[in-house]
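Exercise 7.
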Amino acid sequence: MSKLLCFSAFLCVLLTACAPKADTPEDVAMSFCDMLFNKHDLDAAAEMCTPDSREKLRTDFQYINGAIAVMEEETENNYVYRVVKDLTMYLDDTAYVIIHSDFDDTDMPWKLVKEEASWKIDFNYNNNSMQKELLEDVVDEMGKYVGN
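Solution. The predicted structure, written as tokens, is:
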């Protein structure tokens, strides 16, 4: 009986250790920024969004594809992002995560909601100042590569 109990305990520990780790809202926000801003993979970024906010993401960023192609001809960028841990807030199945970008030394707030067992970016979250700054940054960066 003792061996069976030890084996059961060992099996539980093994299964727990091998179980896939659930992504945190911070993990998802970091991956989203990497897919969107570093890898320029709009489809992968859209999969990280809530279904009802994917269209807004695609609409907001569809024009960037051409700008990205122009910029990548000159240089390859690998912007560094980090979570501002002290500012992450949880409210039930909603999380607010601040990602700091070294590109322009700004903080980008993201709202995530838990859908089923996964955290998803709510791109419908209206943070006008973040969106305005992001668009200004893109226009400024494009200006470096396109003749005035």
